[in-house]
Amino acid sequence: MAVEITGVRPGSPAQEAGIEKGMLLESIDGRQVTDVLDYEFYSAAKNPVFTLLCGSERRDFRLCKQQYEDAGLDFPDYLMDKQRSCQNRCIFCFIDQLPKGLRKTLYFKDDDERLSFFFGNYTTLTNLSDRDIDRIIEMRISPINVSVHTTDPALRCMVMGNRFAGEKLRYLYRLAKAGIEINCQIVLCRGINDADHLRTTLANLVALHPSVRSIAVVPAGLTAHREGLFKLQPYDRESALEVLEIVESAHDEALERYGDGLVYPADEWYILAGRQIPPISYYGDLLQLENGVGMLALMEDSFLQALAAKRFSLKGPRADIITGESAGEFIKELVSNVTAKYPRARVRVHVVKNNFFGGNVTVAGLLTGKDIMQQVAPRDLLPGGRVILPQNLLRSDGDLLLDDSTPQMLEQHFGRKVRFAGDGEDLLEAVLGN
């Protein structure tokens, strides 16, 4: 398969070699290029030979470049290939629980090992072949993030709705044996893959250290839109405490054995259980932040460090912080440190219930503009206060919330500018008006 070149950057090795837009890249040093992994791996060589189709003619171009120097080519699509979609029917799949009417991209189920390597997405390994695994090992594609859920083959088939899911576990062990670094994810469904199943799964994965770098244990997210789907029961305080006992025990054992905790519960377990979030030191290298593991500890740490560094007096800043139910009490406790240090400061925290997805979805990142505007009125805000919202409400482009509401719509609703804060330091700066 030849890939069309859509751009050649000025001054690049490709341009100097005479490669032009519109040519088709076929191979590099005799190795066929089918996607971005092939391209990145083979083009990293010093002075590689690119074979291209120029109309009906096949020509070789030697690029004068150093090892790992960018060749300077652009292609129609980042992957240079079709994105691989998920072939599973997981009983907890969040996308299956989305209401109708959202933008089309939100319904796409990604399961692409290439995006796992480049962007940290999770892959189940179920749509990979032996050749794919061979290529990962040959190219040393590492780390790779794997959704495991359970190491019981039969149970994995049931949980993931794929009769090949259990058999594909052998790829996990192949990757680990080859020294490919792996971050694992376990989505727990109450009464299905927790309890003794979880203990066994954690023991099996911890045994793959040092290839397995981290294991995140997260609860299945359940919305109110589960008509016709597998019946699942949400976790409550008692069941969350049971999960924490298992996960923390595995964490402590790994820490004692390897000097690395490896196993980490998502922040949501502590909120459900009514437990204090561990300190930042508990989470090691914070490899599972995108899974909601250690995010609150990191926010608290950066917030308090930034607050301690403040040495000037304040006339009395005013701020309104809007967040979801799960983080509500945490944010209130966090900003109480501001009012303790600056008694004239006024900070109000508004907790918004996620009616869009139903009461079981409480994380701030899944709030919609509609719920925010329906539940927080302009009259609820402090006079002259700054409106602060979580940065993760917005998609990566920073222009839309989940329901296609925009920051401009929120500003029009509140009658004032809104600010989106990321980490703890950013939140403090927003509160203080800096």
Name the beta content range: 15-25%
How far apart lie the N and C ends?
A: 53 Å
Structure summary, number of beta strands: 15
Principal-axes geometry comes out as: globular
**Overall pLDDT:** 91
Helical content class: 25-40%
Report on the structure:
- This protein is α/β, with parallel strands linked by helices and 434 residues long.
- It has three domains: 3-74, Roll (Pdz3 Domain), CATH 2.30.42.10; 95-291, pyruvate-formate lyase- activating enzyme (Alpha-Beta Horseshoe), CATH 3.80.30.10; 298-432, no CATH class.
- The protein has 14 helices and 15 strands.
- The protein has helices at residues 13-16, 36-43, 113-119, 130-139, 153-160, 169-177, 195-206, 237-258, 267-273, 295-309, 325-341, 369-375, 407-414, 424-432, and strands at residues 3-4, 7-8, 24-28, 31-32, 49-54, 57-62, 73-74, 144-147, 182-188, 212-219, 263-265, 318-324, 346-352, 386-390, 418-421.
- The strands form four sheets. Strands 1, 3, 4, 5 and 6 form a five-stranded antiparallel β-sheet that branches. A four-stranded parallel β-sheet has the order 8-9-10-11.
- Helix 7 packs parallel to helix 8 (237-258), helix 8 crosses helix 9 (267-273) and helix 10 (295-309) runs parallel beside helix 11 (325-341).
- The longest helix is centred in the middle third of the chain and has 22 residues, at 237-258.
- The termini are far apart.
- The model has no long low-confidence stretch (mean pLDDT 91).
